[in-house]
Amino acid sequence: MMEVINVYWFKRDFRLYDNKAFNEALNADAPVLLIYIIEPSLIADAHYSERHWRFVKESIDDLNVELTTYNTSIQVFYGEVIDVFQKISKIYTITKVFSTQEIGIDITYKRDIEFSSYCLENSIIWHEFQNGGVVRGLRNRDSWRRLWYQYMEEAIVEPVFTHIEFVNAEFTEDIVMGFPTYWKFDNSHTMQVGGRTSGLLWMESFFNERLAFYSDYISKPEMARYGCSRLSPYIAWGCLSVREIYQRCIAEKKSSTSKKQLNAFMSRLRWQAHFIQKFEMEPRIEFEAFNKGYLDLAQPMNSEFLEAWKTGTTGYPLVDASIRAVTQTGYLNFRMRSMCVSFLVHHLFQHFSTGSKWLARQFLDFEPGIHYAQFQMQSGFTATNTIRIYNPTKNALDYDPEAIFIKKFVPELRDLPVDFAIQPWKMTSMEEMLYNFELGKSYPHRIVDISETRKEALKKLYGKRKDPLTKTEKERILKMHTLKKRFP
Ligand SMILES: Cc1cc2nc3c(=O)[nH]c(=O)nc-3n(C[C@H](O)[C@H](O)[C@H](O)COP(=O)(O)OP(=O)(O)OC[C@H]3O[C@@H](n4cnc5c(N)ncnc54)[C@H](O)[C@@H]3O)c2cc1C
Known about the structure:
By secondary structure, this protein is of the alpha/beta class. The chain is 49% helix and 7% strand.
């Protein structure tokens, strides 16, 4: 007779604290095997890159330190999910699997459907638990606002280890830790470090030191790196729960002198689930326009434009600095993310799908629901909001007036006076000589004229709004995705 066990499958929920699924597994009727699966198909997916898997590895290592108290650790398997479960089933009888719902890209959505069938066929009960404020199975947002508050105000789930027995099997090398390259990372990176311990440090420093600057710095590309919470990767990978952050905000509010900042921050916490909920209810937006009226919008692919955008060589310093910053550091503040996407979809008039996967690979905090819902909004593909086309030069003058961020990430412009670092095309040939700089050689010419591209994009995008399909779709989107009562 094989031993009967339950499995806890860590997905994007790398924490023991306030993790309902984990706590239910602890209190179920059989010993628990803790697992994470490195899936070759996901590793190969274009949304993901080494920085994500390193963050995952760091998060698991961190959890394993916490788990030593309970004499167990997470077994890391390499393989496709069903193959891994089949292998475990050769040694144990699995009766239940516990995990947190994943609101993921198409490939993980399909994997979960297949896994669900596998469980049914093999008499395994798969218990999935709600992921933060995102509610599965909703058809509209009538009750969503109430449900969000209800969830955030419920008591934190403290893990109770009293009765639990963990399964500490030695699996053979061919099925565990079999991932040779990505799994052995260079630890000398300068990006945010994965794991709850690190997430808690960022949270403490935000509430204790940085919150006071939040609203003043949020739009400034250099200062936002300090003044924003920087909690996004820890939220996206589940090292911190939004509920614990929300409840911390409520506690802080009682004594804080930064109430305005706290309110601004808390509204972002609500947007987190609000955007993911859109994706949960309409996952097709990974591939195509939210509003079907835009499905036939012609956006011919221009590989030269795309290359310039991805390499930060568009000739617009703030766009180039932003792209290079996110490539090097994995982080960019909201306004600069919007501006880079606006540059791609409006000024270069490229379909969002030409940049969405590439940017996902750069964002350490890649969260499919926020990412795709934001790409749609920035593209103007909902037809429910005013189309916002960002002017990178105006944004540089307003938010990086000393060109500190530009000079940090675009070294070619470092020795120029601030005005020319922001608008190098304004230099006369005499000035170019003076600064030993040659536009077109030292730094590229602008690849498009944004005053022209802006007009063109507005004409095409607003033109589509007159189509009957766009109008019907707009009504459908408003009905399905708009809150009955707005958040305060
Ligand atoms: C095109 C585009 C793609 C984006 N992709 C992602 C993504 O993959 N993952 C991601 O976490 N955020 C994404 N964002 C939203 C936002 O830019 C980041 O959440 C934010 O910059 C992260 O920094 P922070 O944690 O310091 O944010 P803070 O301002 O401190 O906000 C706290 C938290 O609130 C949430 N939040 C903040 N802004 C937004 C927003 N506009 N929409 C939804 N939730 C928000 C995040 O969870 C964030 O960690 C994207 C924005 C755009 C325009």
